[in-house]
Amino acid sequence: MEQLAVLTNRKKKEPATSQASAKRLTRNSKIIKTIIAAIQAKKGQHIVSLDLRKINEAVADFFIICEAGSQPQVRAIADHVQDQLLLVCGEKPYHHEGYHGLHWVLIDYVNVVVHVMHPESRKFYRLEEMWSDASVLEHDE
Which of 8, 25, 81, 114 has a C-alpha 20 to 30 A away from that of 91? Predict the structure, then answer.
């Protein structure tokens, strides 16, 4: 639950112009593609992206959610996402947490938030249901 509390303590960045909005969308697209590729490379399962842009209460533009079958895999996926985002996009996370228990690691890139979850945690917290107004896209290979 701590991971959800982190998201409520900050706001997503608002663009000043439509040109800034287009630039942000292109940047977000590259970030999302890199995240999904990194998750797939480490065999993450049930990968979905939630487009939260039309939800006023949303704390980010996109959530990327995936499952990992074990704690070492949760760590491997989370580490690989961070490594690839730095390498490909030059992006460091604004915040990350959940490395102690490795049941749910949250990696916050401000407008894009990654959730790497153990299946039991994903069933318990039901993020997709919580944000059911969002557009959902599945990314399994």
Answer: 8
**Neighbour order of strands in the sheet with 45-51:** 95-97, 104-108, 112-117, 62-67, 45-51, 135-138
Q: How far is CA 139 from the centre of its chain?
A: 13
- C-alpha 106/C-alpha 113 separation (Å) is 7
In a domain, 65, yes or no: yes
Taking the whole predicted model, whether its pTM rises above 0.85 is answered as no
Give residue-wise pLDDT tens across range 8-52: 555 555 544 555 555 555 778 999 999 999 999 999 999 999 999
Decide if 56 is inside a domain.
Answer: yes
Query: How far is 139 from 79, CA to CA, in rounded Å?
Result: 19
Q: Is residue 12 in some structural domain? A: no
Residue 55 domain-assigned? yes
Domain residue limits at 95: 2-7+18-138
Helices (H), the chain: 2-8, 18-41, 71-84, 119-125, 127-130
- Number of domains forming the structure of the chain: 1
